[in-house]
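Page header: ASSEMBLY MODEL / two components / 1001 residues total.
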Amino acid sequence: MWTRLRHFGRAVMHRQTVTREVDVEVRFHIEMETEKYIREGMLPDAARERASRIFGPMDKHRADIRDAHGITWADDFWQDIKYGARTLVKHKGYAVLAVLTLGLGIGANTAIFSVINGVLLKPLPYDHADRLVLVRQSAPLSGQATVGVAIAEYFDYRAQAEVFDGLVEYHQMNFDLINRGEPDRVNTGVVSANFFDLLGIRPLIGRSFVASDDQHGSEPVLLLSHTYWRTKFGGDPNIVGQVFEMNDRPHRVIGVLPNVPHYPQENDVYMPVLSCPFRAAAERTIPQNRRAFAALSVFGRLKPGVTSEGAASAVATINQRFTADHAGVYRIATSGFQATTIDVQQALTAGARDLLLILLGITGLVLLIACANVANLTLARMLGRDRELAVRAAIGAGRARLVRQLLTESALLSLAGGAVGLVFAVATVGMLITFVGRFTQRTGEVSIDLPVLAFTLGVSLFTGILFGILPALGTRVDLVLALKQGSNQAGAGSTRRRVQGALIVAQVAVSVVLLVGAGLLVTSFYRLQRAETGYRADGVLSAQIYGNFSRYGNVSALRRLYFPILERLEGQPGVISAAITNAVPLAGSAPGTTRFDIEGRVTDDPDRRPAADVRVASPKYFDTIGIPVAGGRVFSDLDSEETQPVVVINRSMARYWDGSDPVGSKISLDRGQRWLTVVGIVGDVRQFGLAQETVAQIYLPLAQSPTNIAGQVLVRTYGPPEGFAQLLRDTVHAVDPNQPVEAVQTMADLRAEALAAPRLTATLLAVFAGLALLVTLAGIGGVIATSVTQRTREFGLRMALGASRSTVMGMVLAQGLTLVAIGLAVGIAGAVAGGRVLSAYLYQTAPADPLVIAAVVAAFLLSATIACLGPARRATTVDPLVALRAD
Amino acid sequence: MSTTHAKPLDLLQGTLDLLILKTLALGPLHGWGISQRIQQMSASVLRVNQGSLYPALHRLEAAGWIDAEWGSTEANRQAKFYTLTRSGQKRLRAETDEWERMTVAVTRVLQTQS
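Prediction written out in full:
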């Protein structure tokens, strides 16, 4: 086989050389033959003439020799392409329809694949990225999927794990960077000195962190991100050496990072761990508090040859060792505290993987439908081509040659479709990136690059063969029949009709699966949109004011910032009320689990205490955000540090009182050191996501909050809240001109943001399902129309014999709807079986929701009937006489 | 021309390949040489149709049973020399066996008394 291939390749590539060699060889032969005759006594001229005559006509031999090499095959190939292109140009309507259908299918697949390639397949852009793993701690028994790594734990892993080339820590802080007097809130990555070395990132200018930056007493230093350097400093090359104030200390810029994606998060600046005042302070408290500052991400690079299993078990062993040594801290029996490792790449993309694979599956199905449709179009066109193919067969084209001709045409179509699809993909991939960006940070690396182009080419050729092979199989034309009779009755008509029917059934089935999926997501989205959130989002503006610890280092200092802001805001025209809390609903945080005791019902085992999410709220909070009061009272200005400590609880929390009124009873968050009186009950609020069930919540008054909180300002206004953004900023600056005001947005926007991902998922699937439906309906209409044309004579005859128009129409509709009904049955079975993959994306909607399925069936039957009506009506307009005379 | 022999026979369909392989089993040879050698060995009974010789040679080469290489003749002329490959030898043995079975069978049929 290989030898043959090599010869064929050589013959095609060097056809000139081969032809020349053949000529030389033949000339040598004729000369030898001539000399033989001369030796036998003939005259030279006569000898040459005889030698040539015996050898025979040169051209024919040359062709035979070329055949022996298989070059004819390549010649035919070009001929096929030229012929195919000419045929397609002649049948523009068919070609354009096919190319557009395929273009949509291929384009959708290309767009999704480019995202999958960028997010799931491409290695991270770091040195030895395949060996980067994250240390993941969890406490499954107390319901915590991830538990941050504490400083002491990190030190244990770093000292004891021998499987790593290097192990680094990371956490993110927000600090004010004072840039020439202007405060600028910057996202700050706090990292080990060897963090960038481990990732293989070398600074663009200046130097990276070194071990001496990471020692007590060393000067605080900063690395700037490329983006921050460009936007805030205009790419100033003299930035290195400049000093900025952060946290009341001078920080020297030592370098600028290159323009690379940041992991695990985007940051404006980076500092070594001991430059972070919190991290440095926490390190000093390790002897008393092993779990100090349990907020680190820890990841490392495996030594070459270490497997992920090896790394996971090494980390687990170290974890078991330190949890055993400090059993009182970790309470393994109730927490199940443990550790393992996972691939960094997997950790970064886990949120998007399932969704992307579902999308790829869906676009794959759309492409299959497109293929089936083009196959049907091609089959329909074949009716008119039987004669042409028969003629070609009659003048000597073999069956293989005819099949090849048809395949060449479909390949041309699908490649054109691929080109259209590529344009389509380039145009839509931006939208898709924004969408997927909600689930992973890796979308920055998505691009239409070489692997994507290869994918498109592969898919195009594959679809070309797929939809080309079916019609080609139907080319077993009966020569005599085809030539003798008109094209209408020719050849393998009934086989072809069966294939067409099967294709329609398949298309309907796949479309039904997609429609049911889309129907489920749309229903779920509709219900989610209407979900009772427990508060009124409209008319409220929110903003973040994080009092930097250096100026507002304790809770009373913070109150001196927050209360004057509220006072001033409430005096402004147009402001109904203003409030401060620590986190607004739907802002993306996870519920806290603070354990509490109810007075008179204290449990012995502290780990068996009930848990609740604790919030801080200023007096007008419940009014401002519209949370209804269900009993008792909410906070007032009279609640202060000097008065009785009070809390307000929500309805979910009230269930712990088993029906008796909680108001007036007391709870404690610190094992009975301080008792807080429950003064009121408020409604439940969906704090953590529209689809998340509410949890028990405790509200503490801002005036009595024992700890620092980040301030979320809320303002309820007359009229559109957007117009109050500047007023809000000015008011804050009137209290403290250096206080940054961030994330100014309306609560309605926040709510819309929470709905954006499910809305887009539903929209995308609905668009794909709609496409599938359209393509399928076009297919049904087309097939029925062809069949009506074929049965013209039959209908004419029936009508001549007295069949009414409605009978004929009924026959045509029955033909179409029978196919649809079979497809519906198959499709619904498939949808019910496959619906489970969507269950994670559904809100209060069962994967086999009968209402959705019924709606899809009704919609499909209705639209299919409409698609068949046109051809059916045409069947009734057949003039019996014309039909009988025809052909 | 010889008077002792009848008119030379054209080759039976399919036997040309076998004869080429057999000829080359005796040593490398160019196209013209092969045609002469077949004629000699068959004592001028068989005549190679020269037009079908070269397509056959190229076909056998493409199949990997023979190899071709440019070289010089004794008269120092450029010619394409063909040699039998290892798989060509195998093929020759197989085709020879088949030919013998065929001739035995045909002869047996012809010798059957009517």
